[in-house]
Amino acid sequence: MRRLRSLYPLKSLGLEFWLPLPILAIAFWSGGAAIADKILQRSYYVTTPIQANAQVQEQPTKVILSIGVEIKYHQGFSKVKVKTANSALKKLEFEFPFTEVSQIEVALSRELGLSLEQIQKTVHYQVDFR
Question: Which domain of life is it from (predicted)?
Fold first, then answer.
């Protein structure tokens, strides 16, 4: 009976609730540490390398209405006028230092970002022999 009277102050302080809390805290801490160690020890293999310095230049889509090429053989250059349907660029003009048709088409495909087939479908040539 005396023991029960001696434990009565512990019950009044709520130690029945507070004594298991440190044990639960230690259990959660050790369990969390074990899970964190397991996750951090995994090795992750990258199949494709990441390019950090690559800049993506997005060009607006160009709708080409017509391409007119004026070849000046004796002067050794070609003038190219391109009409587009874009609101920002209506006309583009190029001057190339060669008169070969194949070279002109390759240079136009590079400048406009189109394939050779698309260039050949829309290009019109005018030859000046003066």
Answer: Bacteria
Query: Could you state, in order of their start, the residue ranges of all structural domains in the chain?
Result: 64-128
Q: Which class in CATH covers the domain with range 64-128? A: alpha beta
How many Å apart are CA 122 and CA 65, to the nearest integer? 8
